[in-house]
């Protein structure tokens, strides 16, 4: 997906805003009210804001997304360790939200490719289709059939049952 628009392919139409020509000798009152307004109201507020910004610039706080440390999985928690259960459940919910967003982003890329390519979408968007199929299958394998009220314990049991079925199929 291109990072920037191709300005040669999608040219911006010229502006159609007419140029105003003064045809009267009476002065425009806004030419007098605007500077007065700026001096009376805007200048003190701007001065005060710049003063506050200057004081706050010493204590810069850069906010990015919140980073959580990885906690042990539910299978690694000791029996009766309810705090570990709670942290593992919160970690699982965050992972589920991230995985859901990954699927949504890939789906949006696929839709954009289909929109862009039109009738040639099957040959030009094959890579996106394959990626969407892989991501959707991985999400379905991990979180499918859990429902809205799924939690880390039911997800772990689902993975355990799937592993047992794979072992039986391998024998």
Automatic annotation (TrEMBL):
Tagged with keyword Disulfide bond: no
Source species, domain of life: Eukaryota
One of the record's GO cellular component terms: respiratory chain complex I
Pfam families per record: NDUFB10
Residue ranges crossing the lipid bilayer per the database entry: none
Compartment(s) where it occurs, according to its Swiss-Prot or TrEMBL record: Mitochondrion inner membrane
Region (Disordered): 1-27
Keywords: Electron transport, Membrane, Mitochondrion, Mitochondrion inner membrane, Respiratory chain, Transport
Stated role: Accessory subunit that is involved in the functional assembly of the mitochondrial respiratory chain complex I. Complex I has an NADH dehydrogenase activity with ubiquinone as an immediate electron acceptor and mediates the transfer of electrons from NADH to the respiratory chain.
Protein known as: NADH dehydrogenase [ubiquinone] 1 beta subcomplex subunit 10
Organism per entry: Hylia prasina (green hylia)
């Amino acid at each position: 997906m291109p990072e920037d628009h191709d300005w040669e392919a999608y040219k911006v139409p010229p502006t159609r805003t007419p140029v105003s020509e003064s045809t009267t000798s009476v002065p425009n009152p806004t030419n007098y009210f605007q500077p007065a307004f700026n001096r009376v109201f805007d200048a003190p507020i701007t001065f005060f804001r710049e003063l506050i910004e200057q004081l706050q610039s010493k204590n810069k706080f850069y906010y990015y997304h919140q980073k959580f440390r990885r906690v042990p999985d539910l299978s690694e928690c000791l029996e009766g360790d309810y705090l570990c259960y709670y942290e593992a459940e919160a970690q699982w919910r965050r992972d589920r939200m991230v995985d859901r967003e990954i699927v949504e982003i890939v789906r949006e890329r696929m839709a954009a490719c289909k929109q862009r390519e039109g009738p040639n979408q099957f040959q030009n968007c094959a890579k996106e289709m394959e990626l969407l199929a892989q991501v959707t299958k991985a999400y379905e394998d991990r979180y499918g059939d859990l429902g809205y009220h799924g939690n880390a314990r039911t997800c772990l049991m689902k993975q355990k049952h799937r592993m047992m079925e794979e072992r039986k199929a391998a024998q």
